Amino acid sequence: MGSGGGVKQHIEKTVNFAASDAPLTVKEKGLAPSTIHIPETIGGVTVTYNVPEIPKSGLKLTGKAISGIFMGTITKWNDPLIKELNPGLNLPNKNIVAAHRSDGSGTTFVFTDYLSKVDPDWDKQIGKGKSVPWPMGLAAAGNEGVAGIIRSTQYSIGYVELAYAFQTGMTLAHVQNGDKSKFVEPSIATITAATAGIANKLPAGDADWSAVSTVNAPGSDSYPISSFSYLLVYKDLKETSKNKEEAKAMLHMIHWMITDGQALAPTLLYSPLPENVVELGKKSLSQITYDGEVLWKYDDSVKTTETKTTVSGIPDWIRNNAKWWADGLITDEDYIKGLQYLISQGILKV
Predict the structure, then answer these.
(1) Does the pTM exceed 0.70?
(2) pLDDT digits (tens, 9 = 90+) for 289-337
(3) Domain that holds residue 154
(4) Which stretches of 123-243 are assigned E, i.e. beta strand?
């Protein structure tokens, strides 16, 4: 399930909380006005390709070139613009096959948000969203679907979440940064750099987050297609929880996720949150109630300057728990069971 499905379930109040790589739009916020956004991690979207003549990770692309490919105005791999960006590469006279998501997706939102920022024509004709009217290309559901098209189709190109691309060994393009000074390779370090500038400018958790964007961020080492991932929680958990005890347990779980749990982010190929974003999340947790009763109090004298959690000795099924939950491979109940295991082993303190 993509972010679109998660947002839908959040609005319909069929889940305790949801996750999305895209903040709620103004319209979605109107349907769920008491939503609190809590940044949970930082990820990136890679541009991946399958061109036998091009060395692994040897391709350089600008936003204008990527936009042209997915709009269908750049149709050949040896297009003059691509050749200009990649002198010395053996670019074949082959048709480009573009692959995109068919489902509502936060990955699509981040990718099209970037294209809207770098190309006025894309912004005017197609725009950004979890689902957009693609003018051309092959469609598939999920990161795995798009990746499957790319792996099986020579001369194809598409966009895939950074963690999934790394885990499956895909070939990644270097994308020009927001300063237009460098072509940046996607990595944990470069997506971290991309969010550093906006970390101090985020709104309160219960405010409108629809305009929050970290794409095309300035900075020499900033990878331009990067974004926060969000947890979506209602301000009063009586709307979605069975009882106060369940609500309080969920709140403690989220607190761990944005504090000590950040130590696991690099092992899952995500970037840990900056300290000020962690503090913002903790303040947001202190706003959440159950039937009007505050469940957790924020103490600004306690800073999360270092995590107590270590990753050594944690079984693989726990190490991958957050990733599997985010990809919809396990249920909320299974995810919570994984956290209960951490508690029982003394790894997680709540």
Answers:
(1) yes
(2) 999 998 888 776 555 444 333 444 444 445 555 555 555 555 666 566 5
(3) 45-160
(4) 138-140, 156-161, 174-176, 183-184, 226-234
